[in-house]
Amino acid sequence: MRIAGAAKLVVVVAIFLLTFYVISQVFEIKMDANLGHIFARSALDAAVRSTKPPRYKCGISKACPEKHFAFKMASGAANVVGPKICVEDNVLMSGVKNNVGRGINVALVNGKTGETLDTKFFDMWGGDVAPFIEFLKSIQDGTIVLMGTYDDGATKLNDEARKLIAELGSTSIANLGFRDNWVFCGGKGIKTKSPFEQHIKNNKDTNKYEGWPEVVEMEGCIPQKQD
């Protein structure tokens, strides 16, 4: 009887050890698979991060050199979507900010620090050009001036207003017409014509929208004003 009892005990112990061994092997395999999946996922994420193109300020296509301000802007789309002006990764004017309107939208930036000085829009369809002229005359030397049209930015413009904008470096302002799309970046006290300007004429044969041309966009790097 004692021998039979001992034999049963041996069998139970053997079964227990065999079960423990099988479970441990399965658990180890599963752990290895999980760890392998984790390491593979980490390697894949690292590869994706390494191939993802870098993002530059305002979403421009390349980084600006030192002592330059990055900017990107777009005119309005018909009379539906307002213009957008971004400088140094700060959106100064947009429909989301609810500070744009029909006519010419203007943002003023300090040419030395990049600080936003003012944002305004002037209705050139149903408004008066006089406040716009006074605003243009009040701009201080060294100020960066960014402008974008929305809906119609030309009907109320007169020769005086066009001349003041031309003095900021614009070449297209003389030809800006009814419902043209136009974006411009210049400065008060600039000695040459600005390279930052885009203009599309309102033409029923080529318009993208009914009664309006396509949106114009522009990006670049504005040299910081030096003492």
TrEMBL record:
Q: Which GO terms describe its cellular component?
A: extracellular region
Please name the GO terms that the record assigns under molecular function.
carbohydrate binding
Where is this protein localized, as stated in its record?
Secreted
Alphabetically ordered keywords of this record: Disulfide bond, Lectin, Secreted, Signal
* InterPro entries membership: FAM3, ILEI/PANDER_dom, ILEI_FAM3C
Q: Name one Pfam family in it.
A: ILEI
Chief place of localization: secreted
- Record domain ILEI/PANDER: where: 102-189
Keyword check for Signal, yes or no. yes
The family line of this record is: Belongs to the FAM3 family.
Name of the protein in question: ILEI/PANDER domain-containing protein
Q: Which organism is it from?
A: Melopsittacus undulatus (Budgerigar)
Q: What is the lineage of its organism?
A: Eukaryota, Metazoa, Chordata, Craniata, Vertebrata
